[in-house]
Amino acid sequence: MGLFNFNTHLVRIDISDYDKYLRDGDVQGIVVNGDAVLVTIRKDSLEKEVHKKRLAGVKPEAGAPQYTFYIGNTPQMQQQVVEEARAKKVDVRIEPQNDMGKELLYWLLFFGAIALMWMFMMRRMGGPSGPGGQIFNIGKSRAQVFEGGKSTDVTFNDVAGLDEAKEELQEIVDFLKTPKKYTDLGAKIPKGALLVGPPGTGKTLLAKAIAGEAQVPFFSLSGSDFVEMFVGVG
User: Fold this and answer.
1) Cα–Cα distance list, 28 to 13, 17, 18, 133, 225 (Å)
2) Pairing status of strand 27-33 against strand 11-12
3) What is the CATH number for 19?
4) 203-214 vs 163-177: helix axis angle to the nearest 10?
5) What are the pLDDT digits (tens) for 124-135?
6) Which of 5, 45, 46, 162 stands 20 to 30 A from 144 (CA)?
7) Is residue 102 part of a domain?
8) pLDDT digits (tens, 9 = 90+) for 144-178
9) What is the Cα 211 distance to its own chain's centre?
10) Measured on CA atoms in the order 47, 52, 56, 62, is the torsion positive or negative?
11) What is the pLDDT of residues 18-35, one digit of tens each?
């Protein structure tokens, strides 16, 4: 029977009890529902002492089954019960088994197992910020933003030497300050400037100085983080 098909008016009996009731002519009808059989006793047979004792305290609805027993979900057993009942002129009704409750239970267990596995994996990885958690940060920018006039106050005066580089970059500073002056002349917006040099020669400091001179935001991002954001980790 279905998981939610609870019937408090049914009394559980053995198949041997059913066979005796069938031989005695007490059975009016049966309903075969999968591995369960519901038994309805004749009205006059309900006055017998055996049924009065078994059904004491139970008030089934008129014409509703009083007993139930299980035969196993095998076609051979079902066929035998049906043939024996029909041989005794008993009303037989076969209903498809309601497995909705079982299916719901299976799905709940399935998704519960997936949830437990996910929680276990997250705990092993230490969460999104733990070991292996970088996979959850793919596509996230790690750039540090310095707002012009607030977080960075670096200017060309803070950069020692590099006079030629500063002179060439002054045009970019001027454009960042007054872009309209250049666009009115039909000048194209520069895509950027490539600062090339060994580590520690002041490239990042020079870039900060450009932002500080022009009072524009400055984004600090390492090359590995930049590649990871677009290509991925691993």
Assistant:
1) 16, 15, 12, 68, 80
2) unpaired
3) 3.30.720.210
4) 30
5) 765 545 444 554
6) 162
7) no
8) 555 544 546 777 777 777 777 777 788 888 888 88
9) 46
10) negative
11) 999 999 999 999 999 888
pLDDT above 60: residue 138: no
Given a contact cutoff of 8 angstroms between Cβ atoms, the answer to whether 218 and 148 are in contact is: yes
Q: Count of CB atoms within 10 A of residue 83's CB?
A: 10
Domain range enclosing 69 = 11-95
Number of domains making up the chain: 2
Mean pLDDT of 167-194: 79
- The 3-class secondary structure across 94-136, one letter per residue, is EECCCCHHHHHHHHHHHHHHHHHHHHHHHHHHCCCCCCCHHHH
